[in-house]
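Notes taken during the Thursday session

The instructor put the following on the board and asked us to keep it in front of us for the whole hour. The protein is Olfactory receptor 7D4-like. We were told not to look anything up and to reason only from what is written here. First, the residues (184 in total):
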Amino acid sequence: MYLVCVIGNLLIILAIIADSHLHTPMYFFLSNLSFTDICFTSTTVLKMLANIQTQSKAITYEGCLTQMYFFMIFAGLDNLLLTVMAYDRFVAICHPLRYTVIMNPRLCGLLLLLSWLIFVSLFYGAGLGVYLTSGTAHPSRKGSVASVMYTVVTPMLNPFIYSLRNRDMKGALRRLCTRGTYSQ
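Then, after some discussion, the predicted structure tokens were revealed:
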């Protein structure tokens, strides 16, 4: 599942970079979401895979803090990027004639920067406080399954949800794959 997540999201990023028709605000945010999903999944899954390999569940306090820091950064950024993508679609549907004027490159960059700033100021402190004051030492099996669903399955499905149902993205992926076939 981790490999499907990483490869699927990397393909989205490469297709958007390679196809100039996809250099629009919607795909700019989608490529950032794909990058964030890769980072979000990597913060926990790589440690989990190392734990499975070594048969050890130990983590240092510093390692735990570092993992939680990046987990919360990428989880919050993921949510904010989805919000910005929803705003982009709102503008495209409700103001189609003014879309290119409203969603200019400057505003897209500003929205991305604001996503980072809002996340850092609102969620980082509160999330870290909740995590550090948690009284449960051993999570339940249901909690573990829910964690895997949230951290692995959702980012793995995002490439399918946001790109394979989209004709432009399917065409870009086809061109990317055929370009790679011809160059070999």
